[in-house]
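G., before I forget:
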Amino acid sequence: MSKNILKVVFPVAVAFMLLLAACGPAETAVPEPTQPPEEPTEVATEVATEEPVPSVDPTGQTVTFWHVWGTGLPNETMLAIVDEFNATNEWAITVEALDQGNYSNLEDAFNAAVQSGDLPDLVTGYTNAMANWYAVDAVVDLTSYVNDPFFGLTDADWAAFYKGAIEGGKAPDDAFFAFPISQSANVIFYNSQWAQELGFANPPTNYEEFRAQACAAADANNADDNPDNDGTGGLVLYAGASNVASFVFANGGSMLTPDRTGYDFTDQTVVDVAEFFKDLWDNGCAYPTESYPNPEFATRRALFTISSTAGLPYQLAAFEAEGAIQDEWTLIPFPGKDGGQAVDLFGQYVAIGNTNPERMMATWVFLRYLTSPEVQAQWIAGSAYYPTRSDTLPFLDAYSQDNPIWSYGLSFLQYGMAEPAWPSWTSVRRSVGDTFYAILQGTPAEIPALLEALNAEAEQAIAETQE
Amino acid sequence: MARRPGSAHRHQKPSFVILRTIFTYLILCVGVCIAIFPFFWMISTSLMSLGEAQGTRMIPSEIHLENYVDAWNEADFSVYMWNSTRITLLTLAGELTFSILAAYAFARIKFPGRDLIFTILLSTMMIPAMVTIIPNFLTVTWLGRIGPIGWINNWPALTIPFMGSVFSIFLLRQFFAQIPDELYDAVQMDGGGHLRFLWSIVLPLSKAPLMVIIVLSFIGTWNALAWPMLVTNSPAWRPIAVGLYSFIGEAGQRTNLMMAGAFIAVIPILVLYFFTQRQFTESIARSGLKG
């Protein structure tokens, strides 16, 4: 009987093991050691001439970079930049850029890596997520790298970075955990040609003008002989946190208490936004769509839509579709109640994983390269984002001429403000969206109570993230 | 007087029968349309330009076959397709091996605590998969640390956790238990034991449930997304569903390329189902399973 068992078990076991062995351990996650360069590096030279010496030697390190630009031109551009760095850097550092899907996927993957202890060296993400990672020591404060006597930024470099972009990567205690490699902005897409036909020569600069234009467009669609577009025409409104924040910033607010230790959604700058949204909604001058409102904007079903500048390629594609109306359109900043203007800056930030000193320094060397003016210009041209340092602009003249709408958006960066880079913002921004949805569905009288409740939820979120 | 079966049907008026048939076919046609519509939408959208795909058009104004080439190239589908193939084959091989042996033991071998263990095993089916995802992740991470090869970013994390399928064990156990004891007695008289009985008698008689397991496991593994996203961070072992995800960007999604990719991804499942359709439906009918 035992022979019979062997006759069956042995072939099955062998077949199974062969199958497993075919996919054997050759492709494990363990990074291959990189050979150090045979040539003497500049470290030796620097030591000999008593110049600043590297406190940590990054030679031969392999840097894993987790990002979200997995397809299209952004992916090609990022890979080209990485290849160029790998081929030319004098420290024989090898960067491996790995796409992790969208921001949400990447956050899940990084959170899992925190659990497993196998952290990437460089990771992109939203700053509030990075704040959480910083809180658990998974990413590091960049101050010492920026100020490193050998590898750090020069004064001229530092001065060239836009202050808003740098501040967006700092925690309330000034810990600098997120570095901006580029930025985009939440802006309003505005159909200027249709507005002129409706009798408005200029973009709106305050709530009254905005309301007049949005309602005029809605009225025009209701009055024409096409019943399919009834109920459309004004603003496509998704009352999410970023859109709320953009209007609040334009009112001069920040959603934070004056001492910047907590959130304050009962501030008049927020109340004004809530009342403005409610007014537009109740009067049929704002309406929702199920998906990105690019087709609506391209077919005169929306005079205004709100989008990240990263959405420009999708909007341009919508204008190429059959049935699109080839209007002139542009970007405008968010208007304040009485004339302010602002855009919500979305930075493409990266953080350095808390691995070991040599790998972290090697990562910084790559990050410094990635944000150097010429390389940043290459990244901007491939991604349609905006630069984070002023000395990149001279390298973007040709791109700017070829992309006038992008070029026009550049001027808004001066009005840019960033959402709080606080760990609690991850859950608070969800509460903001829920509250503003409830405001749109409720009555105007309920607004104060709903915003009070939002404050309480935000306080709770802060308490939870500080535990 | 008792009516003979079918007599009522024969005595109905022809016009009523025709009406009933038309009504039946009408209902079936509506069902088919509902079932086919998502598939039609996928193919139609995969042939549109990006601008059209963002809108509400049903039929492309111009056929963009190049979307398939773009989707294949941009999302590294050649790598992902190969990964999905080897992950699926490994998982299937492991699942069949372990499920068959476990089901046979539960069905035909008496040992202390057998029913209790089987009940405990069945009760794990009540736990939603997403609840176990973090504990499973920590487990595979730990196994990777103590084992000879890493599990994260490698085939063990993608395949081994799915080789023990309670559903497959349950399905096979129910089927194996119905096989008459006399057949085992006959094998014993020929000098055979459990494994010979399993190999020579039980498995040939169990083609239908095995086919169900193969098809369901294939579909489940081929379409897996959440777990592979968690346990892989490089293209080396990522499956095709992850490739589809790469068409979703920060401020929009390239729906046309995503649908082209989805169609490419679904082809192996269609081919498998085409070849196993008869056994699959037969087994479903026999076991009374519903999707």
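Chain B has a mean pLDDT of 88. Chain B touches chain A through 56 residues (CB under 8 Å).

More on Monday.
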